[in-house]
Design goal:
Layout (H helix, E strand, L loop, with lengths): L1 E5 L9 H10 L8 E5 L9 H13 L3 E5 L6 H4 L4 E4 L2 E7 L2 E4 L3 E5 L2 E6 L24 H13 L6 E4 L4 H6 L23 E3 L21 E5 L1
Parallel strand pairs: 1-2, 2-3, 3-6, 8-9, 9-10
Antiparallel strand pairs: 1-11, 4-5, 5-6, 7-8
Length: 227
């Protein structure tokens, strides 16, 4: 099984990196392999045309797409889907090959444990319309925080990967971005104490990582994991 991880695609706006990669490596993947997108996907879009065009692209891919939510999502539509169980955690199954990984969940994929915590603060929300292009559900609720913490406690805080859209507070401090600290999750601040391998989020780019075995890849802004 192969897992490819990337950041924002924003509907079709930045989907070319994904299409190009799979066009070049199509024979290497099947629907049993996964593309994971760390938020701002557009599968549940702000207009019918936007959404239809986005889904058409993802349907054409040879893999199954898993995604966490970012801040630029249609949360009203996203949350209208039934909550189902998948690989140990809660999901919204949008289509057979498009699955939303909900917040505060731990999923086991090919023996690896992924903790998911989507959402982010929109710095551009003043230029957006509530309920149309911006939704207050972008900010995690207390219940989501508590569920995530309880799920981590069950695993003794031992996970392999953490999938987020925004970075922990400690990362903002390290990068000299103190002005952004109010937008970072307190929840994610404890990442350094967790026994985990990697924290993937929007902004990781130009790097490919292969677990246990390395292989050169040629796709900017994407990461590939091999289990």
């Amino acid at each position: 099984m192969s897992i490819v991880i990337t950041g924002d695609t924003h509907g079709t706006f930045d989907i070319e990196k994904v299409v190009r990669y799979f066009n070049e490596h199509e024979d290497e993947y099947t629907r049993d392999d996964y593309l994971i997108i760390c938020g701002d996907v557009g599968i549940c879009g702000f207009s019918a045309a936007y959404e239809a065009n986005t889904r058409a692209v993802f349907r054409s891919l040879p893999v199954t797409t898993l995604f966490i939510d970012g801040n630029h999502e249609n949360f009203e539509q996203l949350n209208s889907y039934a909550v189902e169980q998948w690989n140990g955690g809660k999901v919204h199954i949008i289509e057979d090959n498009m699955i939303h990984l909900m917040r505060g969940q731990i999923f086991t994929i090919d023996g690896l444990k992924f903790f998911t915590f989507g959402g982010a603060y929109s710095i551009d929300k003043m230029s957006r319309a509530e309920g149309i292009s911006w939704f207050p559900e972008e900010i995690p609720s207390r219940e989501e925080y508590e569920e995530g913490w309880k799920n981590l406690e069950k695993e003794d805080f031992q996970v392999d990967y953490i999938l987020t859209h925004t970075a922990p507070r400690d990362v903002a401090r390290q990068w000299g971005m103190e002005s952004c600290l109010t937008m970072r999750w307190n929840f994610a601040s404890t990442c350094s104490a967790w026994r985990m391998r990697q924290n993937f989020r929007n902004g990781i780019s130009d790097t490919f990582m292969k677990m246990r075995k390395w292989k050169r890849c040629l796709c900017v802004c994407m990461m590939r994991l091999w289990s």
